[in-house]
Structures are given as C-alpha cells and as structure tokens.
Write a structure and sequence with these properties.
The protein has helices at 7-11, 19-33, 43-57, 60-69, 81-89, 115-120, 265-270, 330-342, 354-362, and strands spanning 107-113, 122-133, 148-150, 159-166, 169-176, 185-187, 199-210, 219-222, 238-244, 251-253, 256-263, 272-278, 281-288, 297-300, 316-322. The protein is α+β, with helices and mostly antiparallel strands and 366 residues long.
Length: 366
C-alpha cells in the first residue's frame, strides 16, 4: 500500500527510536484508532496506516530500505530507469530476478485467542501453508539422477543482454534468461514433484508461543518460518496478527480489566463487602463504600493484564451498577415507603449528568 506519510511521524517517534519505543507508540495508537473502539470515519484507514508503519519499522531489513529510500520497494520509487527502458526499448529491468540466492517470502496470518490466553500466555499449535524446499530434489529442481549443466543460452550468467542503437546512443537491455529462469543452470529432466521450481507447497504445524500481556492488533514475528528461499536463499519470516475474542465478564482497557458489578440500593447506601470474579484465579473481595453511586469505580490492584515484556500487571476496575428491584414483597414495599417518607429528594445538580459518562465507560462506550 503506497503512502506519502512519514512512518516515524505517524507513530510519533524519532528516527533513532528503539524497537521497544516503536512497539509502545504503536500500542497506544492502536488502542486509539482501532475500528472496534473508534467510530470516526477515518479511524479504520488511520489504523491501517499505523499498522503498516509498525510492520515496516520493526522489520530490520524493511526499516533499512525505508531509511535509505523513503519506501520499502527500493530506491527508484514509482518511476525509474526500468520505466525508461520499457518506454524506449520494451525492456523491464524491475522484473529481472537476481541470479544468486533469493530470500523466501514473508508470510502473514491471523489467529483469534481468548482473553485468558493473553493474560496467562500459552503455546498454541498453528498450521501454516507455505512453500518448502522440495524433498525429492533438495531444491535443485532436477529429477534425482539427471544431469545439471551450464545454460547454453546465457552461458551460466542467468541473464541475457540485447544491445540496441538509438539516437541517444548505445543501450544495453538486460533481462532474466528465459531458458534457465536466472539460475544459470539447465537440467535434462526436471523434478517430477516440484516441476523444476525447487519448492513444493506443504502445510506445516508450528508451536507458537503467545506471551502474557499481548494485545489485540499486535503481531508476533517467528523468524525463519516463512517460505523457503530459492537457489539456496534463506527462509522468510512468519508474522502472526493477534485478535482477542470478547469476554463475557471483562473488557480490556490497556492493561486494566473492566468488570461491572451489580449491587442493591441498600448495599450502595450502607456499604458492603462483596466478591468479584478475577480473570485467572479465585474471586476477590471488594469493599462497596457507604453512599456508593451508580457507575462508581472500585479498584482491585494487580488483577489485570500483565505488562508485556516486563514485570507487574494492570488492575481490575469494578464499576458499580445499582439495580433497583422491579417487584417488591409486602415487607419491602412497607420499608421502602417508610424510607421515602423520611428521606429528602435527591439533588438535581450537574453532578448527576456524570452518570451517563460513567455508565458509557463501564459498558464499553456503546
């Protein structure tokens, strides 16, 4: 995806930023612009742009190309000398494959995990469809027992040259050898399994380690688990995008977990000690303070999500939902009647308007 925005400016980091600083900036922006929490018209596009910037700047090779050329496609940009040759002579230098070893392609996949997996961390077996070195020919592309010889068309160079004369002078058009495909070698019989490519498609099972504290929209890089290279080139990498499933009792906000606790009017007025669930252990006891208001928050420290890559963890934020009973027993009706007769009507000051904001936050902004 082409973009003119500077990746460092998008993430708000300096050009000398470390990987950890880039990850921290991305996490903050991803939470701000993720389409699930931001309904602005341009939020989805902004999320894609910061994700692209994050992917490039956390990949050493792509970051180096970007720092050198301002893009990840090389130094020619959208128009270069290859276009000039194609315009005048019909050649296309950009499509010419290198003769030597070629690195395998990076792979990307997406998996969905439970919130508990993000809290505790876990190992998960995933299946990755990819191109691997052919077992039959060991990547040579030749049928076992067949002979390999120097390509007679390019004399082993892997490329052919055409000299053309024009009003501008003498030009040499270089292109990949059509006979050997740039390898400089030919075989008398190609491999019957991979048909000479040297690679075959397989489904490979891998064990992925999910670290505690990982968040929705973050990526895990698995070095060397992408597609096999060509002509002895190194294997690419695998990038796994993490998505979190919604939880029935908790909503994640950064490294904190939000839980809504229902209490009765009597508990809110008089105060009480109640138990609340926690994500990965026994229930915790919280103190509802006397006079607690609807939407008020009580904090349970250290019961949130672990900080990714460091010690400690966030908190559990318990929002109180004061539930008024829909039906009353005879005794309840009598007691509520007595209470109504002796208490003052509640104040209608501006503080009551804060209720809408507190409830909206507690229910996830919906």
């Amino acid at each position: 995806m082409a973009t003119t925005a500077d990746f460092y400016e998008l993430l708000g980091v300096s050009r000398s930023a470390t990987d950890e600083q880039i990850r921290s900036a991305y996490r903050k922006l991803a939470r701000q612009y993720h389409p699930d929490v931001n309904s602005a018209a341009d939020a989805s596009e902004q999320f894609k742009r910061i994700t692209e910037a994050y992917e490039v700047l956390t990949d050493p090779q792509r970051r180096q190309r970007y720092d050198m050329f301002g893009s990840t496609t090389g130094g020619l940009g959208d128009f270069g000398i290859g276009d000039l040759f194609e315009t005048f002579f019909g050649g296309d230098l950009r499509r010419r494959e290198p003769r030597g070893p070629m690195r395998g392609a990076d792979l990307r996949m997406e998996i969905e995990i439970e919130l508990l997996d993000a809290v505790q961390g876990r190992e998960r077996v995933i299946t990755v469809p990819r191109l691997e070195t052919c077992d039959r020919c060991s990547g040579s592309g030749a049928e076992p027992g067949s002979s390999i010889s120097t390509c007679p068309t390019c004399n082993g160079r892997g490329e052919v040259r055409q000299v053309q004369q024009s009003v501008f002078g003498r030009f040499v058009n270089v292109s990949t050898c059509p006979r050997c495909g740039g390898s400089g070698k030919t075989v008398d019989k190609v491999c019957t399994r991979c048909r000479g490519e040297g690679r075959e498609r397989k489904d490979r099972e891998l064990t992925l380690t999910i670290p505690p504290g990982i968040d929705d929209g973050q990526q895990l890089r698995v070095p060397g688990e992408g597609e096999a290279g060509m002509r002895g080139g190194p294997t690419g990498d695998l990038y796994v995008l993490i998505r979190l499933r919604e939880h029935a009792l908790f909503k994640r906000e950064g490294d904190d977990l939000v839980h809504v606790l229902r209490v009765s009017p009597a508990q809110a007025a008089l105060g009480d000690e109640v138990t609340v669930p926690v994500i990965d252990g026994a229930a915790a006891t919280v103190r509802v303070p006397p006079g607690a208001q609807n939407g008020q928050m009580v904090r349970v420290r250290g019961k949130g999500v672990p900080h990714l890559g460091s010690s400690g963890r966030g908190d559990e934020l318990v929002y109180l939902d004061v539930v008024v009973p829909r039906s009353l027993s005879k005794d309840q009706r009598r007691l509520y009647g007595q209470l109504r007769d002796i208490e003052e009507p509640p104040s209608q000051d501006a503080d009551a308007q804060d209720l809408f904001g507190r409830i909206k936050d507690a229910m996830g902004g919906s």
